[in-house]
Every structure is written in C-alpha cells, then in structure tokens.
Design goal:
The chain has ten helices and eleven strands. The chain has a five-stranded antiparallel beta sheet, with helices on both faces. Strands 7-8-6-11 form a four-stranded antiparallel beta sheet, sandwiched between helices. A two-stranded antiparallel sheet has the order 9-10. Helices cover 47% and strands 25% of the residues. The N and C termini lie far apart (102 Å).
Amino acid sequence: MNACTTSCSQAIEGLKESEERFRLVFDYAPIGMAITGLEGHFMRVNQAMCNLVGYSAEEFTSLQLKNILSDDDLSTIKTAIQKLLADQEQQLVLESRFFRNGGEIIHVMLHIALVRGVHGKPLYYIGQIVDITERKRYEEAIKYMAYHDSLTGMPNRMLFRDRLTMSLNQARVNQQMLAVIFLDLDRFKEINDTLGHYSGDKALKVIAQRLEAALRKSDVVARLGGDEFTLVLYGVPDRESIDRVIDKIVSAIEEPLLLEGREFIVSASVGVAIYPQDGADVDTLLQIADKNMYIDKERKGIER
C-alpha cells in the first residue's frame, strides 16, 4: 500500500469518525436540534425536537418553519438570517414561539448557524432549540407582581402612573378632558377592628370588583394601598359627567357588605383633579386630587 492510498484511507476513516461523532451529538442532544434547508423545510431533527414540538421525525420531513411559527416570528427570523447569508454574523441567538402539534404555544431560544460548502456556498441551517416556556412564565409572573396589587389584582401605584401618563398624552393630542380621582374609604377601619384583617381583605376585593364594574373599559382604576383607590376617567365631556360617574361609584361602594353574617356599610371620600383646568402634568394632578380628597374627608368630619 503506497503512501497516497494510506493517506486517503486515513482521511476516509477520519471523515467517518467525524460524521459518527456529529450524529451522536445531534441525535442524543438533550435540547432540540434541527437542520433546515435554505427555504425553511426540515431536513433532519433529533428526538428532543420531536418531543418539544410534538411531531414525529417522519412528520417533520413534510413540515417547514412556517408551519410552526407565527407570521411575525417567521418574518423576524427571515430578516435576521440575512446577516448570516451576508456573512455579517456567525450565529444568531433569538427568542421565538413555536406552535406545538395541537396548537399550544411554547417559547424557545433559537441558536442558528449557517453551514457553507465549497467556495462558501450556503448549504443549510443548523439550529439548537431550547425550551424557555417556564422561564417566560416566571418572568411574566414577576412582571405582573411588580405592576399589580397582590390582593385585588388591580394596577398598583407604579402601573397607575404609567397609565395616567399615557392617558394624559392622549388627552393632549386629542384636546380632551381627563379626570383624576382619589378615593379613600370611610368607616372601613370598623371592619378590620370588628372582624379582623382577613374579612377586611375580603371587603376590599368586593369593593374593587364594584369599582371595576362601575367604570368603562377605557377608564383606569388602581389600588394604592390600604383602603385608597385612584381612578382616571378619559375623554369626559364636562364636570357634570364626572360627577355622575362619582355618584355611581360611591353608590356602588355604599351597597351593604355581608361579612361573617354581619352587615357593614362603608362610604368614600372623593377628590378630583381635571386636566387641563387643574394641571397639565401627572404630579400636579395627583397632588390636587389627593388634597381635594382630604378636604372632602374633613368636610364630613372624618379623621385622616
């Protein structure tokens, strides 16, 4: 056997070993692995990918990326892979959503690389797919808790300011009136003192539901803490309309509360600030509404 034959034989053995190593890594990887053609059709997937999306390897051969992606996500990926084709990036890392067999949506992290052949000709894409659905759910839960009151599920102070800012900007553009309302419950302490904070929390949940039911979907209601609530009425035509809404929500609050077999009636002190008459920025409107609420409370002879 001459040197050339030996060298060729060793090269072939090396190639076979390399292919076998790739096959083992690909097939038994604990994350999804997929090879797709340049037009997005699946050429090969591993078992983890099948488990992830809910299709068999045979079924994948008749699928394309567009079959498991929303139009928006598919467009994002198509735009991104232009960087691979232009040799501007070696690998893409991006989040996406897959439709599982049956319609369930899962969140994934995609790592995509372009495999080139002789003279740099693009051949196919190889992707690693990691399921991040639980992580996304956790992130959404954390985000929700950061912006919502844990007892009532209403927007909290932080989200209320954001919503008020958005409504105020919209009111400026559309030259419309906007009302900010501060609302503090009167005689609510009696419930906590008589039945305890557990019953007090139940009462707050009921009152929160009544407030939401009394308002339009375009309005905003939030719980600042304790027994204080704030509201934004957007696009109200005049002060009389605001007063009618206030009468409606106060009447809803004053409906009897049945707690542990006992009936309680609470009322509310209300303060209003109107854009643009009372102020043109968030802080000014909040301060005036808060001040007017305490004026109403003092007028009724109720301690702060």
